[in-house]
Amino acid sequence: MNDFMYxxxxxxxxxxEAMAELPGELEKFGKNVLLLYGGGSIxxxxxxDRILADLRAAGKNVFELPGVMxxxxxxxxxxxxxxxRREKIDLLLAVGGGSTIDCAKAVAVGAxxxxxxWQAFFKDWETAEAAxxxxxxxxxxxxxxxxxxxxxxxxxxxxxxxxxxxxxxxPRFAILDPALTYTLPKAQMVNGIVDTISHxxxxxxxxxxxxxxxxxxxxxxxxxxIRAARAAAVNPEDYDARADLMWTSSFALCGMxxxxxxxxxxxxxxxxPISALYDVAHGAGxxxxxxxxLDYICLDALPRLRRLAIRVWDVDxxxxxxxxxxxxxxxxxxxxxxxxxxxATLTELGVPxxxxxxxxxxxxxxxxxxxxxTREDVVSILKTAL
Amino acid sequence: MNDFMYxxxxxxxxxxEAMAELPGELEKFGKNVLLLYGGGSIxxxxxxDRILADLRAAGKNVFELPGVMxxxxxxxxxxxxxxxRREKIDLLLAVGGGSTIDCAKAVAVGAxxxxxxWQAFFKDWETAEAAxxxxxxxxxxxxxxxxxxxxxxxxxxxxxxxxxxxxxxxPRFAILDPALTYTLPKAQMVNGIVDTISHxxxxxxxxxxxxxxxxxxxxxxxxxxIRAARAAAVNPEDYDARADLMWTSSFALCGMxxxxxxxxxxxxxxxxPISALYDVAHGAGxxxxxxxxLDYICLDALPRLRRLAIRVWDVDxxxxxxxxxxxxxxxxxxxxxxxxxxxATLTELGVPxxxxxxxxxxxxxxxxxxxxxTREDVVSILKTAL
Lengths: 386, 386
Known about the structure:
2 copies of one chain form a homodimer. By secondary structure, chain A is α/β, with parallel strands linked by helices.
């Protein structure tokens, strides 16, 4: 097992009554609250009214940053930073999924420096020295951002999608009520499931290959995600299935599954320029890229992919070669994404063949694990996904 | 899935180089440090010298509380509290296993109140309002105390072994170097493994019974613990096996496996008066009590014990009834403890038949789960373990 440091101070309130914990959390922070949210679905569901009532009952001065988009952009972060400085914001309350939370994290550190947040943190990776506290009410299980310290922001002008992390941007609290996900549009739900599986793969399909607790835990999470996704597809109001989907996506990125592992974020690195260039949903992009990537590195990662096939996808490998077993696991991954209704090709995503070179140019090649990728490897992978 | 709150702010440094993180941690705290340790094995191994060198290099004033015994006692806690008050201690540094850490936690809260620590916290369960910060260097994987907020202290005069927990007693940091366990006496190692399995059982063998992530994670931890215990028995210097044993025992009690579960601490509750009355090692007591308890509640917990047998002990249930499968899992648990060299009967522990009534009188009956236990149930369970 490789050495590791593990630290995660997020306080999680999970379940049917989790929202009842919001007033107690609000008491811990100052009076000026900036509420960040997305496209307005929280107004339709009544969640906005409920949270606003809690904020008012707690005597808060409420400011708002609505309209945080998927693949949140620098412009929105600058907007939030300006409000924070002007209104002396004491708490950021992000209500939504990973995009809203990631935007709030960037605002949290950006508002506490005189420097340009993009250049200082997302380009130069300077260490943040202060951040406005952040709380989360999660409505979309997918990115795990509610339980991690990372933020991913897109700079459309530069065609860059970069990440930053700081212990100061761990949420102080995260409220997770699975019932809030009943009304999610199917495509968002599916993208969230693909994103979660992809995170679990990036952690699990990486060295070292010997037995260890972390790998057993990752397999447990993968089996749970697959089972719950199928149950929620049959009955969208299956509470236990929704609970497992929500908690598994959070657990996936809480840090436990990094412990002792090299990890391999190649699929995410290849997908990032696709969503930066074409604004496709991150999960949809991953559904196309990840299986293509695994088929490409199959021979380099043979024992691990064989183990994935057997332990996660229940492949009976009697009479099969190691490679046949490994490929069958990848085939089942692809079939599962298709079963959910996720896109399977770049063409379905609206990404033309001519753009492959450009995507490869923009791919960060530093996140590989079993095999060092070149620009040409990325081109080859994407060609198999057309 | 039941609602839950999860919070665990311990910073873990794990691995071969984990000790190198101690100086950085020491910088975060004030000058006066109380070093707590047990019977002196850390002097024989050189660990004491290394830590003292780090403390001196960091410019600390070092005070010592040596001789913390297994089943740590109130007297030792009072001794520590007195030093803390007199010397204005800024940091408690516990070097050892669960006994040393538990003693340090009691000192941490006890030194910050004018009340009697035993009465206020371990009897009246008052909420602690302050605690001296605590750091840990772990030498014995077993209790998980390095990653939780609980402390168990024995009052020999009252024949009571009580527990207390407070978020203020989470260690600020925990240094876990598996190589430090190479030199552990076999009996301590075995007791630690039994304690860990028992913790995992108390969490896993409890309602609800439907599928959920937490149960999958517990099964993963159990399989890891069993595999690693066997590997370490063959080769005590198998680093990866020692690493899995250390990390699994910590993970078991970090709180992740409580999430959504009722939990069932009946075996621990029956064992506590045994160690309070006879000062037997906690793990040794559990090796006797836990299988006896499971056989007693087998019919009440049938689906769960059947699942344990199949998923953890690889029982092939073809042609077996549900009860036969469940009992086979318990039989394999008992056989595994025996294979490790743990005691199997009260007689081996030196606990006479005449004491059974007394033990039952002192057993806390509030921690059951599948079946409400009476004093007579406890007597019956212990009789089967003679």
